[in-house]
Amino acid sequence: MQSLEPKLRFLRLEEGYAEFILEGVTPAVANALRRAIISDVPTLAIDEVAVLENTSVLFDEILAHRLGLIPLRVDPETYEVLLECYEEGRRDDCIVSFTLEIEAERPMTVYSGHLKLAEPAEPLKKLARVDVKPVSDVIPIVKLAAGQRIVLEAYAKMGVGREHAKWQPVSVAAYKYYPRVEVLREECGEEGRRCAEACPRGVLRYEDGRLKVVNELDCTMCRACEEACPDLVRVSWDDRRFIFRVEGLGMIPVSKVIEVALRRLMSRLDRLAEAVEEAAKGIKSPEPSEAQLEP
Amino acid sequence: MIIPIRCFTCGALIGDKWMKFAERVKRGEDPAKVLDELGVKRYCCRRMLLSHVELIDELLRYEVYGP
C-alpha cells in the first residue's frame, strides 16, 4: 500500500485553465474535488430580471434566460464580500444590478457590453470599487429592428452550479488516472512503426528501429497500441494519482475555484463531524447486562 | 433563432465568437480553420457554431416599426 499523503502539483496554471496532478488520494477524494468544483463554488450570475419594456422578437423569459447565462467577471475583493454574504445565507442582500436601455434607430444587435452596472447594494458599498462586468463585451443578447425598444433591470445574485448551470465557475472539470506506458522491447524493427502509428495521441515514437515513449501524460489508456502489437507495449495506470484538467469561464481565476471548492468541501465535512458528535450525545450506551459481565 | 450564449454540452462561452465566425465563413474561409483560430477546441462547442442558422435575421424583416 502506497502512502496516502495528498499532494498537488500544477503542470499548467493560467487564469482560465489549469492542469494539475493530484496524488496520494483515492478516486473517491478526486471525484469529490471534481464535483465540488462543478457544483459547489458560488459565483455571480443574473438571476432576476425586471422587464419594463420589450418590443423585440424574443419573449421576456428568453431574454432573461440569455442574460442569466452571461458569465460575469468579478474582481477579487468584491468576490470575497459576495462569498461571505452567500455563506451567511444573505444572498438576497448582496445583489449586483445592471440596467439595459436601448432603442434601435436602425437594425442592430444588443451586446453584453450594453449592460450598465447600477449602484451597488448596501453590503458592497464599503468597497472602494465594485468591478463586475461580462467576461466578453460582444455576446449577442438580442437583435432589434428599427424602432424596437428594450428597457430592463437585471439583478445578479450568488449561487452554485447545483442549483443552475449558469453558476458553474468552469466548463470542463475532469480527471483521469495517471497513465503508465511501458515499452517491453525497445529494439523492435518495423513492428514498432505499426505500434507508434496505432496511437491516436502520439504517445509513442518510432525512430531508427527503436520504439520510445515521448509524452506519457497524453495517453488516454485506449490501448490501441496494445492491440496493434501486444508483445511490444503495456499500458497501465496508477489509481492513486490523477491528472486534472479544469477550464474556467473567466468569472474568477481557476486557482481560486480550486481553493474555494476544497474549502467548502472541508467545511461540509466539519459540519458532518459536529452533527455526529451532537447526535451521539443524546444516546446513552446501554448498561452491560449481567450475562455480559460474567466471564 | 439567435446564437446560444453557451455550449449546450460543456457550458463554455461561444456566443461571443459567432459574429467573427459567420463573417469569415461567409467570406469563403474554411470553417474548421476559423474554429481553430477562435480557440474552439471541443467538438461539442464546434457544432454549436458550425450548425447554427441565424433565423432571427429572417424574422426581423417582418418587424416594421416606427413611422
Largest sheet of chain B: none
Quote the distance from N terminus to C terminus of chain A. Answer: 39 Å
Using a beta-carbon cutoff below 8 angstroms, give the protein chain pair with the largest interface and the number of residues from each chain. Answer: A-B, 30 and 23 residues
Q: How many strands of chain A?
A: 14
User: Mean of the pLDDT scores of chain A?
Assistant: 92
Along the chain, the helix and strand elements of chain B come as: HHHH
Percent helix range of chain A: 25-40%
- Indicate the CATH class of the largest domain in chain A: Mainly Beta
Helical residue percent band of chain B: 40-55%
Helical element count of chain B? 4
Rg value of chain A: 27 Å
**What's the helix count of chain A?**
7
Compute the number of structural domains of chain B. Answer: 1
CATH class of chain B, please? Mainly Alpha
CATH topology of chain B: Arc Repressor Mutant, subunit A
What value does the average pLDDT of chain B take?
93
Measured on Cα atoms, how large is the radius of gyration of chain B?
A: 14 Å
Strand coverage percent of chain B: under 5%
Outline the low-pLDDT stretches of chain B: none
The string of secondary-structure elements of chain A, in order, is EEHEHEHEEEEEEEHEEHEHH
In CATH, the architecture of the largest domain in chain A is Beta Complex
Describe this structure in words.
The complex is a heterodimer of chains A (295) and B (67). Chain A has 2 domains: 7-39 and 171-247, RNA polymerase, RBP11-like subunit (Gyrase A, domain 2, 2-Layer Sandwich), CATH 3.30.1360.10; 43-168, DNA-directed RNA polymerase, insert domain (RNA Polymerase Alpha Subunit, Chain A, domain 2, Beta Complex). Helices cover 27% and strands 34% of the residues of chain A. Chain A has helices at 27-39, 60-69, 76-87, 190-198, 224-228, 254-281, 290-293; strands at residues 7-13, 17-23, 43-54, 72-74, 96-103, 108-111, 116-117, 132-134, 140-144, 149-159, 170-183, 204-207, 210-213, 233-248. The longest helix of chain A has 28 residues, at 254-281. The mean pLDDT of chain A is 92. Chain B has one domain (1-67): Orthogonal Bundle (Arc Repressor Mutant, subunit A), CATH 1.10.10. Chain B starts with 17 loop residues before the first helix and ends in a 7-residue tail after the last helix. Chains A and B meet through strand 9 of A and helix 4 of B.
